[in-house]
Specification:
Elements: H1 17-46, H2 60-146, H3 165-176, E1 180-181, E2 190-191, H4 193-202, H5 212-215, E3 220-222, E4 232-235, E5 243-249, E6 252-256, E7 263-267, E8 275-278
Parallel strand pairs: 1-2
Antiparallel strand pairs: 3-8, 4-5, 4-8, 5-6, 6-7
């Protein structure tokens, strides 16, 4: 026996085998946990963390609502497009109606203008016919009253009606018989041939040109076989005439002849004209 065996404090009490096993197990578990945590931390530090989010699965009711919403959106879009097409068609119809109205108004105005012009033309033709008939009657009267007059002389006179365009011309010419002939003369007491004719027709409201050349192309050309009282006779070519006078009927004319004769009545047979024009 040891010499210290009798002292209890020098010896540690023995632990039971079960307690030791329990401690070993706890210690091992802790170490294992720490090891796993460390390994996990190292792995997390080395690789990024990815997270997957799972979308919820649509239920039958939710799918139906989504389909109905899509149908409603499509129908609304179709309605908007239909309304836009209707608006465009209405705008186009309004523009076309406006154009058609403008065309119709233009046609109506043109028709109205054409009718007015036709009426004015008819009136003018009627008045011209009446005036022509009146002048024809005047010429007939002048021709009949001048029948039986003698040869050309300064004292020969021609009766004329009191009124009318042809009568006004002949009356004026008759009043100038016996006046002097002066080159370039335009009255009141001396004349050249074209100055006398111009002044005579002015009494009937007709503005003749001043020269014989211009007067020979004024109005309507007539043949010498179809002369009427008041026709302008010319000698020389039309447009280049050198003398003019006025036919007074019965184969006679009145003119400012020359400085030796003055204003006289003469027979066409003694000095035939080259042509004639009708200004009345």
């Amino acid at each position: 026996m040891s010499h210290t065996a009798h002292i209890p404090s020098h010896r540690k009490p023995r632990r039971s085998a079960s307690k030791m096993a329990l401690r070993a197990g706890v210690t091992g578990g802790v170490l294992s946990t720490l090891a796993v945590a460390g390994a996990s931390g190292a792995a997390n530090a080395a690789e990024p963390v990815t997270q997957t989010i799972e979308l919820p699965t649509l239920t039958t009711d939710l799918s139906s609502q989504v389909a109905q919403s899509a149908d409603a959106t499509q129908q609304a879009a179709a309605n908007y497009q239909l309304q836009a097409e209707r608006d465009e068609a209405f705008a186009n119809a309004a523009k076309q109606a406006k154009k058609d109205q403008a065309v119709a108004e233009k046609k109506a105005e043109a028709k109205k203008k054409a009718e007015a012009e036709a009426a004015a033309k008819e009136k003018a033709e009627r008045e011209a016919a009446q005036q022509a008939a009146s002048r024809s009657a005047e010429r007939t009267t002048l021709a009949s009253t001048s029948a039986g007059t003698g040869s050309s002389s300064a004292s020969t006179t021609v009766a004329a009606p009191a009124s009318g365009s042809v009568g006004a011309v002949i009356s004026f010419l008759q009043a100038q018989v016996g006046d002097a002939y002066v080159m370039g003369g335009t009255g009141p007491n001396s004349w050249d041939c074209s100055g006398l004719v111009q002044a005579a027709f002015k009494q009937a409201g007709v503005d003749l040109p001043r020269t014989s050349q211009e007067q020979s192309t004024f109005g309507t050309s007539v043949s010498l076989s179809n002369l009427a009282v008041g026709d302008i006779l010319y000698w020389g070519g039309a447009g280049s005439a050198y003398h003019v006078g006025v036919y007074i009927g019965n184969g006679q004319y009145l003119d400012a002849a020359n400085p030796s004769k003055g204003v006289v009545i003469q027979d066409l047979s003694g000095y035939p004209a080259s042509g004639a024009v009708r200004a009345l």
